Amino acid sequence: MLFRSSFESGWPKQHYEKIRERNEALDIRVYLTALPDMLRPNLTAIAKRLKPADESGGQSAPKEYVLRPRPETPKASEPEQPEPSQPEPPRRAPAPRVKIKVGGGGGFGRGY
To answer: Were both Cys, which of 11, 24, 30, 60 would link to 53 (CB 3.0–4.6 Å)?
Structure first.
């Protein structure tokens, strides 16, 4: 899009002119501009977390990650039995539909 100014009746008027059919780059830029306002990040907490452990500026030791085995799931041959619960109350029958007449009656030409 292109922002243009023109004069109508002696007054300046600003408007956008479409350059191409689609403009995803502008859409993404607008979304990224609005993102911090929508998320409202706690920047103080983020800055504290990103600081090294010691204030001397040295790097802290890298974390070691350990893979844990996947927890076992119940097998298909052993289905879990749900707890017996109270039966559901009977449902009410739906209310009958009522037709409402719209238009076709009244007006100045119909006896009012």
So the answer is: 60
